[in-house]
Amino acid sequence: MSLNKTTESTVVITDTSCLIILEKIALLPVLHQLFDVVLTTPEIAAEYGSPLPEWIVTISVKDKSLQQKLASMVDKGEASAIALAHEIENKYLITDDLEARKLSIRLGLSIIGTLGVILRAKQEGHIDFVNPFLELMKQTDFRVSDDLHQPILRKANEV
Length: 159
Known about the structure:
The chain is an alpha/beta fold and about 160 residues long. It has a single domain (about 10-130), classed as Rossmann fold, CATH 3.40.50. About 50% of the residues lie in helices and about 10% in strands. The chain is built from nine helices and five strands. It has helices at about 15-25, 30-35, 40-50, 65-70, 75-85, 100-105, 115-125, 130-140, 145-155, and strands at about 10-15, 35-40, 55-60, 90-95, 110. A five-stranded parallel beta sheet has the order 3-2-1-4-5.
């Protein structure tokens, strides 16, 4: 499945970290520009701690037993996002947590991270450059390893 919004409807389920960091660097609206449907769970909405934009739809996980099982491996919010992604077809899960990413891959889910969202925003013309946003991220508590920083800039044709 492609992330290109013009070819098909895209649904994304977001974890808390993506919402928080995109808010801190003034890019939260880009989720709405990139994806047709942006979903989250009540657990993530609570972790976010502020009212969500009206275009983010909050839905509860149906399979509570799966959610509880996942919560023994990752935090409550990540468990809810992974469980919801397991229930919804044709979707991506945005998560930055390494353990949540590994678990999602084992479950066969399609994942993307916040850096991937920012790169996609440039590729689709919503922002002109990636690097200024990576620099803003460095000023927050979100850590971007140099192992990721340079490849993202290369993919964005900024080095």
